[in-house]
Design a protein that fits this description.
Blueprint lengths: L11 E7 L3 H8 L4 E9 L15 E8 L6 H10 L9 E4 L3 E5 L2 H18 L6 E4 L3 E3 L13 H8 L5 H5 L2 H9 L6 H7 L7 H13 L3
Parallel strand pairs: 5-6
Antiparallel strand pairs: 1-3, 1-5, 2-3, 2-7
Helix pairs in contact: 1-6, 2-3
Length: 216
């Protein structure tokens, strides 16, 4: 089955919270090496949270990435560079906290190293809670790839490539375009990157035609 996803021999997952999840979804989704993104809720105890009933969870981004292209430490550096993690963010309960969830001991070690390096560089103390990963609850569909929804014709053209809307949300091309519409990267960057996605010739031609035909 055609997936149009970037292929990777090995994938890892990064999970973190840094305020409203719409922005981080586009900020990290455009990065080469990121395969897919999804937004949701994590860090709390309430079962099955929703946006209207988030409980003690925080808005969270989860990404799957290829460590041969982008390393976990680079992701964390961008994470701390992209939001204010030195102030108290508990102004609306835990919804917009700065949280970092490590999936294994290696990620925990890297998180501590990057945090220490960042604090020494800026002479500030990071307030991010660094916690073991336990569970991630996927947010409602209308929060996924949020900024693409501002371009309904483009959204329709891209999503029509996939058998289900969930497949569209989980796709690499959706992650890239959701970043592009927020002025992260250029369409030419995406076109060049297609060469390294491991796509079939037909899949590559379909995406190239799509990128050329969309009118923003």
């Amino acid at each position: 089955m055609t997936t149009f996803d970037r292929q990777a021999n090995n994938t890892q997952t990064a999970t973190f919270s840094m305020g409203c999840f719409w922005g981080p979804d586009s900020r990290f989704g455009h990065l080469p090496g990121v395969i897919r993104t999804r937004v949701g809720y994590a860090g709390g105890t309430l079962p099955n949270p929703t946006y209207r009933s988030i409980g003690d969870h925080s808005e969270t981004l989860e990404i799957d990435f290829d460590p041969e292209v982008i390393c976990y430490s680079d992701i964390l550096t961008l994470f701390w560079d992209s939001h204010d993690a030195v102030k108290d963010r508990n102004y609306k309960g835990r919804q917009y906290l700065s949280l970092l969830f490590y999936h294994n001991s290696e990620q925990q070690k890297i998180a501590d190293q990057v945090k220490s390096k960042w604090e020494k560089k800026y002479n500030k103390q990071i307030q991010t809670e660094i916690l073991p990963y336990t569970h991630f609850y996927r947010a409602e569909d209308h929060h996924q790839k949020y900024f693409m929804k501002r371009y309904p014709k483009a959204l329709e053209e891209v999503s029509n490539l996939f058998p289900t809307y969930t497949d569209y949300i989980n796709s690499t091309i959706a992650a890239r375009l959701n970043g592009f519409v927020r002025e992260y990267g250029l369409l030419t960057d995406i076109k060049k990157e297609l060469e390294f996605w491991g796509l079939s010739d037909n899949e590559k031609k379909i995406l190239e035609k799509l990128l050329a035909s969309i009118r923003w």
